[in-house]
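Single Protein Entry

Contents — chain, fold
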Amino acid sequence: MAACTTTYFERGNGWPPRVAEHNAALLAQQAMRRRGVRTPEIPFTKHFDNSRLVKAPDPVRVRQMRIFSAAITVLFSLVMVYGLQHFSAIEGSYRVEAEKQQRDQLREQNRQLRLAEAQLAQPGRIDQLARGMGMAAPQPGQVVHATNSVADATSAPALAQVTPPAPPVR
């Protein structure tokens, strides 16, 4: 196109000579600015009047666009469902991991409590604390075992009885 435009100006058709000279001077300046590369750039304004154009309905194109829109909607829905399932699975695995950590913490706490219970339930420790409070060992006959009672043999309800200990002799 550049060659055709240049030939058009060289022949002198269409524009007055003064405009052609001015364009030739601009073209020469462009060539010098571009270091010898000759590419003329001439702007043309084009005016289009589309006010009388009326778009004709195209039922084939409308049908194609509806099918395309439906396909894109289905594809988008499938991707969203997949994403929802994927992120739900990830969230579930995080929840499971958190519950495993909580279970491990509770097991460790339970182990610590069992150790503390075992330390507190040592007979020697209990005996030492009881003697520190002024208690004494039980006297023979003071302890009644439930397996030797008559209530077990008859399976009848029995009332609890308390017999006060004899006062110490002074």
Q: What stands out?
A: The chain has a mean pLDDT of 82. Helices lie at 2-11, 17-33, 59-120, 123-132, 150-154. The first helix runs from residue 2 to 11.
